[in-house]
Input
Amino acid sequence: MPILFKYRGLAGYMYFKDIEKHHLPHFHVEYGDFEASFDLNGNLLAGKLPTQKYKDVKKITNEYQLLLQHAWEKALIGDTFDKLPLRK
Output
């Protein structure tokens, strides 16, 4: 599973050709025992995260909207994408 970002304990992933379950651009996030899926606007699609970590995901999606879209387009066709250049 290709990593999209690591930020404050969050690990974000975007799977190649992953349209079966949500049918829209999205990514997956893991934090400890928590797992969730989000659309590229930071809206929760499935799963659960602690409130502060959800806020971190919203911050990431707000700041990196264009790069998330670009990564999705590449992942959709099975091409590799760059990690987000997150500032800690």
Summary: The mean pLDDT is 91.
